[in-house]
Amino acid sequence: MAVKAQQAEAPPRRVRLSRDRVISAAVALADQGGIESLSMRTLAQNLGVVPMALYKHVAKKEALLDGMVDVVFGEVGFSSGTGWRAAMRERAISMRQALLRHPWAVGLMESGTPGPANLRHHNAVMACLRQQAGFSFRMAVHAYSAMDSYIYGFALQEKTLPFTTPEESAEEAERRLHAVAEEYASFAEEYPYLVEVVVELGTSGYDYAEEFEFGLNFILDGIERLQQRELASDLPRS
Hints:
Elements: H1 19-33, H2 40-47, H3 51-54, H4 61-75, H5 84-101, H6 116-132, H7 137-160, H8 166-181, H9 187-190, H10 192-204, H11 208-233
Helix pairs in contact: 1-4, 4-6, 5-7, 5-11, 6-7, 7-11, 8-10
């Protein structure tokens, strides 16, 4: 009886890496488990390669983080053809949404070495403030700083508060009130405005999007007043 030759097992296919693939995998890993879950070893395991293979595409972990942040900046868009205020509003909302998708990026957006998407974004924002809004350089920097401080600060708060919906905010506020009230018998008398917060949240809840846009419009109103004041100061005097 003829013995059939066993077919030789095909060697495993070699994983072909690229810088974009490495960075995309790192973003997905951080989205799932947070930035603390990201290491070169874990990333290599997810990609099915040895850690040293990654260094052909990213020189070090800092370069990897820079690339990841650049991905986030690439997701933030705004159209400057609608006027400077509408563009800044759209940009702020888009930035918040990007940070919701990638909460690990909060605190990293302005650190490290900027990539091409990062540079394009910052250049476009400054162009909008300088050309469309007509701000002087210094006033454009002031407006930009105020906007980013608000956007990133709100994103950090949204990341750390233990609720995501208005209903959850009401439940969390009531839970904290009961926990503290057990420690302070006269809590309602000493802290009436905190009790009011819980009562109001129980009725309407805390809506992140609504609060963000309220504060955003408040800041844009102030920037617009500064713009009008600066433009008026440049008018020819009789």
